[in-house]
Amino acid sequence: MASLSTTLLFLSFCFSLLFFSSFSQEDPQKTYIVYMGSHPKGKVSTSSHHIRFLTETIGSNFAPRSLIHSYKRSFNGFVAKLTEAEAKKVSEMEGVISVFPNGKKQLHTTRSWDFMGFSEQVKRVPAVESNIIVGVFDSGIWPESPSFDDAGYGPPPAKWRGRCEVSANFSCNDKIIGARSYRSNGKHLENDIKGPIDSDGHGTHTASTVAGGLVRQASMLGLGLGTARGGVPSARIAAYKVCWSDGCTDADILAAFDDAIADGVDIISGSLGGSSVKDYFNDSIAIGSFHAMQKGILTTLAVGNNGPEFTTIVNFSPWSLSVAASTTDRKFETKVKLGDGREFNGVSVNTFDLNGTQIPLVYAGDIPKAPFDRSVSRMCFENTVDKERVKGKIVVCDSLAVPGGVVAVEGAAGIIMQDESPQDDTNSYPLPASHVGPKPGALILSYINSTRVPTASIMKSRGRKRNRAPFVASFSSRGPNPITPNILKPDISGPGVEILAAWPSTVSPSGAEEDNKRVLYNVISGTSMACPHVTAAAAYVKSFHPTWSPAALKSALITTAFPMSHKRNPDGELAYGAGHINPLGAVHPGLIYNASETDYVKFLCGQGYSTESLRRLSDDNASCSANNSGTVFELNYPSFALSTNASNPISQVFRRRVTNVGSSYATSYKAVIVNPWRDLKITVKPSVLLFKRLGEELSFEVRIGGQIRKGVESAALVWDDGKHKVRSPITVFNANLHSLD
Ligand SMILES: *[C@@H]1O[C@H](CO)[C@@H](O)[C@H](O)[C@H]1NC(C)=O
Ligand SMILES: *[C@@H]1O[C@H](CO)[C@@H](O)[C@H](O)[C@H]1NC(C)=O
Ligand SMILES: *[C@@H]1O[C@H](CO)[C@@H](O)[C@H](O)[C@H]1NC(C)=O
Ligand SMILES: *[C@@H]1O[C@H](CO)[C@@H](O)[C@H](O)[C@H]1NC(C)=O
Ligand SMILES: *[C@@H]1O[C@H](CO)[C@@H](O)[C@H](O)[C@H]1NC(C)=O
Ligand SMILES: *[C@@H]1O[C@H](CO)[C@@H](O)[C@H](O)[C@H]1NC(C)=O
Ligand SMILES: *[C@@H]1O[C@H](CO)[C@@H](O)[C@H](O)[C@H]1NC(C)=O
Ligand SMILES: *[C@@H]1O[C@H](CO)[C@@H](O)[C@H](O)[C@H]1NC(C)=O
């Protein structure tokens, strides 16, 4: 509470900087977001409206100072310092949809494009692609990267209304056409640089994955050598810096949506998310992406890195595209060679070269620092290992020791980690490192015990072919959708493991301060890396079909995805959605499951949101009358999910519509059901759809019966006209999923 008295409130309009001082001991003020939906038709909301509103609600001498930011370009609302009692009062006022505290969210190769059959030579529509503007919500951007060289690009598209926050350190060009930064609390931490410049690396990496230009001979100190390129290399980038070293606040994320929608971006990519489940209208990203959808802008989002448990997904609104992370067919292998000549394969991204030099080897369990004993020090927790005895040696730790372990063994010549899950280690470390499984781990420990002067060496990583790819990474968050379980989330999976992309030369590749390495390309992993691949694929599809709605783009990507294997991921669709992204296929989906703002409003009515709220959300006079309310099973979603009690017989009907975007001749599509386990009884009515013209929309029903025997069961509906296979995953899962037996 005391810190509030020194909070600098940056008021971005007509008021000057003020120290905040007014709060009561009993009910301290906190920052809240007050969300009020769309602008009233024909009116604009301004900060003076919001001040008047606050004044009327909570008292005259208080409001102006408490208002931190007004959203006024693309939707209506504001950020204010309020007590809990005031927040409650505000939430009861007419016109207010939700009031929620300003929470924090986190930022959760090139080979990757070839791996999905998307080569450098694919057909493109350069004139259209170069008019596509991708809004990247992230940690900013480092414009000096060769990936953002603007040689050969024309001026920004005429529709662009955005801005570039130019400073001594930062300017835009014809590739990065816009860059803004958001820090509503006005405080900058030591590790952060003011303005849109990327002092983390994450934003540079994601932006270059979407739309970086072609850079030959890119590698991370020799690893992953090849041509680095974004998925839509001609497209333009608008960077919205909402994330700083202490996270990304809801207030700043919403401010970026408010601007990006009005600036004229075509698509938004967000590799960030919260850690708690929030209702759609208490979540900044769900709110922002709803207004983006209203304006025809698709928002692509990472599902989070909290897997592999169920219901860990963080971005799951039906109007956005939620992306899981999978492997490519490349992996990095890091050999460990012992003094007795034995070699073991480990995993990591290790660019250090010890040239085979044998170095003394020690087990962290053998060198605890008082008062800790070996049972603690073996895990390399910070301050538990005797630092004198690690100096110049390679240390073996019994866990994935990031980042504490690296600190614990500071001064060491290298680190070998051993545990059950080396395959999940996709990190680079500030020292030579390899991560081995329990079998080689045990052999290494017994070698240490049996040898007077044990030694080892760690080799530089080498790229290797990964078999059985793709599968979803363990870290990738899983469904089901926590708010609407009967909408399948994630939607789709994209490459997110060991992805090479641009990096600021001002930031170390491991992110550790003691790491003095500098690289122009870095290999990192996360759903954050998967998301921009899918954003780029959506932008690529949009370059062929500029008028398609966000739902149409989603449908095209979902129904053309490469099916993935239930064998590798027993949690099936709840891990990978429809499957692995197929950018080329998505240009010709044949049929699409379209949805408009009205469809989402109907869905929300059916979910119990009030007429009052929805009227404010939507531009038209939406009301939840009987004929304007739909169940979740009627939302025209391109996939089918059903949460059920394992012991109950199932009986559920889904209603859908498909639009012909394939052939201008009469075509008939036949429904094919893929049902490997036969536990489910699936029928489609009608089972043949005859389209007479382009743009024609036809309806059908899918009926699911039977009973499930496994936690997650998978099937699919494929509409097939002999040329297109329009595949929608069908998944039925136990409502009480904890873990799979
Ligand atoms: C410019 O960047 C340097 C280091 O990258 C930093 O120390 C300095 O504060 C920056 N200046 C401004 C005005 O941001
Ligand atoms: C938003 O969260 C608050 C609690 O923070 C809750 O009382 C309210 O019902 C939620 N609103 C919506 C629309 O879900
Ligand atoms: C390995 O060899 C390279 C090239 O000869 C040299 O630059 C580097 O310092 C050597 N590394 C070690 C740890 O000896
Ligand atoms: C190594 O020796 C220690 C104590 O001497 C013992 O507790 C441990 O089990 C041994 N480890 C292996 C892998 O043999
Ligand atoms: C989908 O619906 C939207 C909104 O109603 C409409 O603008 C669009 O033309 C439709 N079709 C496609 C292919 O996007
Ligand atoms: C919305 O409702 C208002 C008042 O009920 C009415 O004047 C207006 O014409 C309606 N607008 C639309 C688009 O239906
Ligand atoms: C219900 O829908 C019909 C046709 O779609 C429309 O004419 C009618 O006005 C609607 N009724 C209400 C109460 O919205
Ligand atoms: C499952 O069964 C329980 C108890 O019979 C019931 O409360 C719950 O609503 C059921 N859930 C579903 C998804 O049918």
TrEMBL record:
UniProt similarity note: Belongs to the peptidase S8 family.
GO terms assigned for molecular function: serine-type endopeptidase activity
One Pfam family matching this protein: Inhibitor_I9
Keyword Protease: yes
Domain Peptidase S8/S53 residues, every copy: 130-570
Residue span(s) of domain Subtilisin-like protease fibronectin type-III: 634-732
Any one GO BP annotation for this protein: response to symbiotic bacterium
Annotated Inhibitor I9 domain residues: 31-108
Signal peptide (residue range): 1-24
Cellular localisation: Secreted
Main location group: secreted
Name this protein carries in UniProt: Cucumisin-like
Organismal lineage: Eukaryota, Viridiplantae, Streptophyta, Embryophyta, Tracheophyta
Catalytic residues, chain numbering: 138 (charge relay system), 202 (charge relay system), 528 (charge relay system)
SUPFAM superfamilies noted in UniProt: Subtilisin-like
Keyword Isomerase: no
Cross-referenced PANTHER family: PROPROTEIN CONVERTASE SUBTILISIN/KEXIN
GO cellular component, one term: extracellular region
Record keywords, A-Z: Hydrolase, Protease, Secreted, Serine protease, Signal
